[in-house]
Amino acid sequence: MKTNKPCPECKTIMELKKTTLHFEREEFYADVEDVSAYICPKCGTKSIPGKLAESIGNTVENLFKSARDAEETVEKDLSPSFSGISFHRTHALP
């Protein structure tokens, strides 16, 4: 990953840290935790490296699609078919 990345908003040098990303689509939301991101210490702007951003985006969109599909297949009087999904790594990678 690139070092000394300037913030696109205020030009301050960003710091590589961990953050949580929040996504919302229709009536669903998803949080992706412990994401490596460049974060501006001055204005708070976040920048996710390209391939990581693409991977997270694809994963989250697939999750939202699966949730919508599940809702559509359930009888209306049983809706909602579930209230949420939580997915976590059980241990840190070495």
Task: Outline the secondary-structure elements.
Elements: E1 15-25, E2 28-39, E3 46-47, H1 50-73
Antiparallel strand pairs: 1-2, 2-3
**Oligomer state of the chains in this structure:** single chain
How many H/I helical runs?
1
Biggest beta sheet attributes:
3 strands, antiparallel
Structural classification: alpha+beta
CATH topology value of the domain at 15-78: Ubiquitin-like (UB roll)
* Top CATH class of the domain at 15-78: Alpha Beta
Give the total of beta strands: 3
CATH A-level architecture of the domain at 15-78: Roll
Can you describe this structure?
With 94 residues, the chain is an alpha+beta fold. The chain has a domain at 15-78: Ubiquitin-like (UB roll) (Roll), CATH 3.10.20. It is built from one helix and three strands, in the order βββα. Strands 1-2-3 form a three-stranded antiparallel sheet, with helices on one face. The two termini are 19 Å apart.
List keywords for this structure.
94 residues; alpha+beta; Ubiquitin-like (UB roll); 3-stranded antiparallel sheet; 3 strands; 26% helix
